[in-house]
Amino acid sequence: MTPLSLVIILILSVAILVLLLVKCRMHPVLGLFLTAIFVGLTTGQGLLNTLTTICSGFGGTLTSIGIPILAGCVIAMGMQDTGAVISIANGFIRLFRGKRMELPVALTAYVMSIPVFGDVTMILCAPIANVLAKRTKRSMSSMAAWLSTGQFLTHGLVPPTPGILAVTLALGASLGGVIGWGLLLTFLAFLIAYVLLNSWILKEYIEPRPDFVVGIEESNGSVEDLLIKGENLPNFFAALTPIFVPVILLTVSSICTAALPADSPVLGLTNLLGDRTFSLCCGALCAIALGLTHKGTVVQNAIRNTPSFKGDKMSYFRTVSDNWIERTCNVAMIPLMVTAMGGAFGKVLQTAPAIGELGSWIAASNIPAILVPFIATAIIFAASGSMTVAAMTAVGIFGGMMDVLGLSPLVLALVIGCGTLTFNHANSSGWWVLTQFTNLDVKQGYKYMTFVNCFTGFVAFGLLLIFYYTGILA
Q: Where in the chain are the domains?
């Protein structure tokens, strides 16, 4: 098989995948499965070998991300039921002294989306955005733009969200390295985009969604009056512990691995602390511990969020061991299955003949090697509407080409992550969720979400190029 014939097959496979997902409205799990079979058969791998490879890729991906993602969902349940998300928003309101109220919402979403799925983050933060918009007479154009951008950035580029976590592990990149660089790139990109675009965004005033602001009056202008009210809310820093404990453990472990000699006795401890499963489980334990100090609030919120759940004498224990786990499974199941099948699809792509020759062909061309995976990921994301599908497909295509392209696992993981930060539009379910929750119509959604998200994604990639070509990132 020649590189050109493999390119044709790859283009056809992406087209088939998009057709199945967008036109036929097929579930991504089935669409990825059928497309993987197509690739296996057309590249001469045979049906039996293709099915074996699919099973291997599916199981291997679940092995890598299954428990960490479930632990991340437990963190989400704890953040929701303890009122931690409100405490974080209030902390940012105080930080900005009641001004620029889109920033507290955006930064809350930015922080929340690190261990929590994007859709869950939007559901938790959108009501807060509407209330603050009403109380400060701030346009929902700005609220929607920066809420979507904040959650979008960390969801696409900062593990342990499923897509970028699976990419990092599949490529063998440093998890702490991807987290550290992902945070730096996304924060700088957000800051640059905000400075350049916010004045333009505020030119159109959009009312908050009416049913979210029933009985809400405009604020008298004081910071205390702007704070989101709630009973028995946790302290701001305590509210952040379930999120930042895993991030800190993973980052410290990566620093120690890079700085300490291989025979250092300290590495045994830091390798344990930096294990993805251990660190995320520590975050889940922090969420449970946070709930212990707010048991009454947790039980009440759990009953409100799950009407079928009833309390008893062991209410808090049952909330954690039954209600949180049930909700975790409900939330995590689809992302887990999609990511795992994406890993299976990628495995079939990686085992295709001539994948190495294709990498050499790209490296020998005049196109900068770092641009190719970014452009490919962006195109697949724009067509499929799924960050995970785009990321895992890109891993399958380029994962076996790292040596010939001259890209390290860390750089390739970040490039693919940046590619998923581009064309977020109406073929994504999350796009529709947020436009509805922030009272935007379709035109306004494209104007204030799609354009701003895309602009910020390209800024992040531009920053990545600067760090890469100056030798700071290798």
A: 3-469
